[in-house]
Design a protein that fits this description.
Structural class: mainly alpha
Distance between the termini: 43 Å
Mean pLDDT: 81
Strand order of the largest sheet: 1-2
Number of domains: 1
Length: 202
């Protein structure tokens, strides 16, 4: 099975966090930003960024938009499921690709994230790369699916979706940058987050 079919990222895709953020910022045109534009920024060849985009949107101020956590949770589930399949690139239905974000809110979220990505970039890089390969990447995919599902009930609680979204951000960063230590942190975060979420839910 090829690297692409096991959910690994193409070697020519941006792996540095500031570069990923720049790709997202440059993809936006007009007063609204569609998921189509954000996905096209990476050519839809990379599973890592395809997980990172909805997770960041859920974690940043854009996640406060009513119903946005349901959209981002659905995208995370969809990408996670496809990471388990022998396919070359993620696929997204037209209904999800057409969803649009307010450009002003999107730009503010990018600016909020930018200083954090610069700090994190100094700490993240290729190591323990076997964690980003099969069979471990299948575990990562399953955890992302579980976190995406968890976003649905947590959407009823203020800011609670940050718990699963933060976990997916860590896992997506690890996959994108091929940093196995970050993937391990993401898996540990999933256990902590699941415990916290179960306490929050009625």
């Amino acid at each position: 099975m090829s690297a692409e079919t096991t959910g690994e990222d193409s070697a020519d895709e941006p792996r540095r966090l500031p570069d990923i953020l720049d790709c997202l910022a440059e993809s936006a045109e007009g007063s609204k930003v569609s998921f189509e534009e954000l996905l096209n920024a990476f050519g839809r060849r990379s599973f890592g960024p395809m997980l990172l985009i909805p997770a960041l949107i859920a974690l940043l101020p854009t996640g406060a938009i009513p119903g946005m956590s349901l959209v981002t949770g659905s995208l995370i589930i969809l990408v996670g499921v496809q990471m388990l399949l022998p396919i070359d690139q993620p696929w997204f239905p037209a209904a999800l690709r057409r969803i649009r974000l307010d450009r002003g809110r999107f730009d503010r979220s990018i600016e909020v994230a930018r200083p954090w990505t610069k700090r994190l970039n100094r700490l993240i890089g290729p190591r323990l790369q076997f964690m980003a390969e099969a069979p471990v990447n299948y575990v990562t995919a399953l955890v992302c699916i579980a976190m995406g599902v968890l976003m649905f009930p947590l959407a009823l609680l203020p800011f609670a979706v940050a718990i699963p979204a933060g976990t997916v951000v860590l896992l997506a960063l690890g996959v994108t940058t091929r940093d196995g230590l970050v993937i391990l942190l993401g898996l540990a975060s999933a256990l902590v987050g699941l415990t916290a979420a179960l306490r929050l839910l009625p």
